[in-house]
Amino acid sequence: MDGHGSCLYLHRGSHPVAASWRLVGRLCEAKVQRGSRKFLEVGEELPPPAPPRRFLLPAKYRLPQTTNKQNFTSFPPYSSVCLYVVFINIACPSTGLQKVIEIEDEKRLHNLYERRMAQEIDGSVLGEEFAGYVLRITGGNDKQGFPMRQGVLTNTRVRLLMHKGHKGYRQRRAGERKRKSIRGCIVGQDIAVLNLAVVKTGDATIAGLTDDSVPRRLGPKRANKIRALFNLTKDDDVRKYVISRTFTSKKGKEVRRAPKIQRLVTPLVLQRKRARKAAKLASVLRNKEDAAAYTKLVAQRLAEQKEARRSLISKRRSTRRSQKVEATA
Description:
The protein is of the alpha+beta class. The protein is built from 3 helices and 11 strands. A hairpin with a 5-residue loop joins β10 and β11. Keywords: Ribonucleoprotein, Ribosomal protein.
């Protein structure tokens, strides 16, 4: 076979006989290099088929290596090797902890398929330890690392034309747009990592997720959020309730560091606001005065042009009359 035709030539004596692939049977499994012919004698057995292609798996899921590459009978069956592993990243906002679990049984994942982002599920689908928990799907990534995007109602990847303001895109030039691949918000079989958040805790305590709590290192910076945290009114001074931290500097001194409060209304802020308002009002009045002066000047210039035109016409008329009088005399 030369690699271009659909038949294989069998030599019987000196007369070649063309036989189709359907008549030969398993000849289609024999690999023939392009540009060369392979001739088989009558009754000769075909070589064994090529071994199946193996996937590149993590070290703990790889198949055992054999010394004899031609002997593939020592490999375990395909069904006994786990080729589908999904990492479930569960976060508990109330405790500040996260836990990652691996699910190798695809039957346990069927309850997650066709679910969308921001949809709540029962925790018992992940295992008995999550009985009574309510989890919300917050996102995920597929096997190629493309993140799920809320609002893209599909379980495959799509290419969206992104511009400034879209997640996952930063424009390099002003007004630049670019088409990028995004995974839909519906969970499917190609998801490798799925992110969940605990909405409601169950009766059992899960180690590494609800058995301990990690306090937040930094407090809120916005003034309204500080008021909401300490239940303050608008008349209370927010600066007294800001969360600060104390640490020892390199020189051995105790240093207190507090964040800058954003959107804090102070007398200086009100003064600047009044100054901006007064400047805007003065600008409006000045623009009105300038517009009135310009309109008056334009009217004056038009009146001057009309007067100059009238004087020119009167001079021409007087000149013509004098010329007629001189001609008749």
